Amino acid sequence: MIFYLFIVVLLVAYFIAHRIFVQRKTFTGTAKLHGKTVIVTGGNTGIGKATAAAMAVRGARVILACRSKQRGEEAARELRMETGNESVIFMQLDLASQKNIRSFAENFLKAESRLDLLINNAALATPGRTEDGLGMILGVNHIGPFLLTNLLLERLKECAPSRVINVSSCGHDLGTIDFECINTHKRLTLGSSDGDLFRAYTHSKLCNVLFTHELAKRLEGTKVTCYSLHPGSVRSELGRDINEWHTRIIKAFISKLWATDPVSGAQTTLYCALQEDIEHLSGRYFSDSQLVQVKPEARDDGIAKKLWDVSEKLCGMI
Ligand SMILES: NC(=O)c1ccc[n+]([C@@H]2O[C@H](COP(=O)([O-])OP(=O)(O)OC[C@H]3O[C@@H](n4cnc5c(N)ncnc54)[C@H](O)[C@@H]3O)[C@@H](O)[C@H]2O)c1
Q1: What CA–CA distances, in Å, run from 233 to 34, 248, 256, 287?
Q2: Which of these, 303, 295, 277, 271, lies nearest to 119 by C-alpha position?
Q3: Average per-residue pLDDT for the chain
């Protein structure tokens, strides 16, 4: 008992020290974005909304690509009021439906002439299946952004220099890609344990890092660059489907003592999107606005290529 108490005290002390002494870097770049167009997926809440606000303040035309019409329009209205930028608009995008992703891309390409920054921010940790029968977490967190990015690549190339930002997580470090995970994801339905959801989430976030690695190679010479990142531990709606009592306690603990607000969580996304002279780091992973070397599996050319091929098949591109 004393041992466990000691561990708890140690953890609390660590979290408090972390909160006091570790200040996340604030992006101070002064880049103006007038005349540029940015898509932020999941831009109606959390880190996505804070990212969209920062883009709007810099003068960009900002497309909030969100699932819910009501929440997306409300967020766009709020951001227009807060930033004074009238060019913040909502467009409906459901990453759990490949049909919807295709129609979003078609509408976007018809309506908008530019795309300078694509910020693949949306994600979830929810059980269930997508409309296309994939595990919800893999479908929304990796396959959806993969398809969306590919459908918008030509426009990004036309507008180059342009960037793709994939918001991953430090949790990718716990993920593994053995391609069996694709089947594991399919088994995730309602009633899956928090442990299963967490594993699927870490797999999907590893997919984000590998997708970025392979995309950078395919984009060499086009002046379109891409980056993946960890936004930090941030208070948001992400863990809303975590239901087991012990994981709720851990979540509440981390949220109170460690996690920061969404504005801090947006800083590394802003760095990857707007920092000058990082083009040579295309394909790499950042945390707290710094380059971080990922584990060998997350930068393995063979695995990244195989994941690309599997992803193309899963979204009917070949
Ligand atoms: N919050 C954290 O501590 C943390 C840590 C590491 C990584 N991240 C990553 O940061 C990103 C943003 O997460 P957040 O913390 O702001 O969470 P959040 O839940 O507040 O935001 C996620 C957004 O994704 C959207 N989304 C979910 N399913 C969608 C779908 N089918 N179609 C379109 N949009 C959909 C949600 O509506 C929401 O707007 C995610 O990629 C997440 O994995 C967050």
Answers
A1: 31, 15, 11, 11
A2: 271
A3: 91
Q: Whole-structure pTM over 0.90, yes or no?
A: yes
Higher pLDDT, 253 or 148: 148
Whether cis (ω within 30° of 0) applies to the bond prior to 161 is yes
Q: Active-site positions?
A: 201
* Of 234, 273, 225, 235, residue with least CA distance to 54: 273
Kindly state which CATH superfamily the domain 30-314 is placed in. Answer: NAD(P)-binding Rossmann-like Domain (3.40.50.720)
For residue 189, give the 3-state DSSP assignment.
coil
Q: Is the CB of 236 under 6 A from ligand 1?
A: yes
Q: Give the number of other CB atoms < 10 A from CB of residue 97.
A: 18
Q: Tell me the average pLDDT across 198-218.
A: 96
Alpha-helical segments (H) within 159-228 = 181-187, 194-218
- For residue 130, the ligand 1 atom closest to its alpha carbon is 31
Angle of helix 46-57 versus helix 267-274 axis, rounded to 10 = 50
Question: Structural domain boundaries of the chain?
Answer: 30-314
Taking the centre of ligand 1 as the mean of its atom positions, its distance from the CA of residue 262, in whole angstroms, is 11
C-alpha–C-alpha distance, residues 89 and 108, integer Å = 12
141-193 pLDDT tens trace: 999 999 999 999 999 999 999 999 999 999 999 998 878 766 656 666 656 78
Question: What's the pLDDT score for residue 23?
Answer: 62
> Do residues 216 and 305 make contact, with C-beta atoms less than 8 angstroms apart?
no
User: pLDDT value at position 237?
Assistant: 83
CB of residue 269 inside a 6 A radius of ligand 1: no
Rounded distance, CA 268 to CA 86, Å? 25
